[in-house]
Structure formats: C-alpha cells, structure tokens
Amino acid sequence: MKYTILLIVLLAMAGAGYAWWSATPRIDSTGKIHASLYEGASDSWDPQMQVLPFERAPSTTLTLRWQPPQETYNHFVVTISTVDGTAVRKESGEHDRLSLDPDGLEPDTEYIFALQACLDPRCQAWLIGQDEYRGTTETTTETTIDNSLDNL
Q1: Which of 21, 55, 119, 129 lies in the 20 to 30 Å Cα band around 3?
Q2: What CA–CA distance (Å, rounded) separates 103 from 136?
C-alpha cells in the first residue's frame, strides 16, 4: 500500500513537472519584434544571416544570405516587418535556398527579418534563427536631366 501511494505521488509530480516544462517558453523572445515565432519554435540556430544592399537596381531590394541549420528541415520562411512591428509579408523558399532578395520595399526604411527553417511542409513545427536581423533600403535618388537651351 505504501508503495502504491508513493508511486501515485511520484507520477503526479512527474506530470506536474512535465506540464510546467512544456508550458515554459524554450526560447527567449524578450525584445523581439516577431515574439510569437520565437515562443512557438522547437529550437533555434545561428544562421549567421547577412543583410546586404542589393547589388543592382532597384534600391528597394535587399539581399539576405544565411547558413542552414544542421537539423533536417523542409523549407525556409522569412518574415519581414518594419521596426515598429508592422508586418510587411512572408516569403518562403526551397530547402536548399540560402539567400533571398526581397523586393518592393520602401526606400530609406529599416526592416526586421526573422528566419524560420520549417520542419514539415505546413510549417507547424520550426526552428528559428536565434536573432532577428536588420537592414535598411537605400534612399532613391532621381536623376534630373536638364534640357534647357542655356546649357548648349
């Protein structure tokens, strides 16, 4: 009888411990614009993402490059937001893709990028890049052509 009660108490404690552990966020989302992505992720990795100016026009495009996780994954999703947290869009790419050139962004605007490696086709489980990354599009400059007769 003693052992039965002890077994029940141990099982109850184990169940309570598991419930607490599974309810506790595993990844710190403090200060993150995309906090829900961090809170829902299975784990994180360091993709060593680079946000670079796009090498050709238009200046409203940036180039993102990253390293893949060592875990097996299905595809990538990049979430793009402005620094105030306004969602711009999500872009996804194939499994072997290691770069993205998001275009159509506003000139002279800073953006925040979060990188997910989806573990399944519907991205119901994912890894998240351990950091959010920032990049600013260039200021567009318009060239004015002076067609006046004074310059002839």
Answers
A1: 21
A2: 12
Q: Residue 150 domain-assigned?
A: no
CA–CA dist 104, 94 (Å, integer): 21
Closest residue by Cα to residue 128 from 21, 25, 20? 25
Question: Is residue 57 one of the residues assigned to a domain?
Answer: yes
Residue 147 lies in a domain: no
Please give the chain's pLDDT, 152 residues, in tens: 666 766 566 666 655 555 444 444 468 889 999 999 999 999 999 999 999 988 777 678 999 999 999 999 999 999 999 999 999 999 999 989 999 999 999 999 999 999 999 999 999 999 999 999 999 998 865 433 344 444 44
Other CB atoms within a 10 A radius of the CB of residue 126 amount to: 22
* DSSP secondary structure, 101-128, as one string: ---SPPTT-EEEEEEEEESSTT-SSEEE
Segments forming the whole domain that contains residue 117: 2-136
User: Does residue 120 fall inside a structural domain?
Assistant: yes
Distance (Å, whole) CA 30 – CA 105: 27
What predicted TM-score, i.e. pTM, was given to this entire model?
A: 0.74
DSSP-based three-state secondary structure for 10: helix
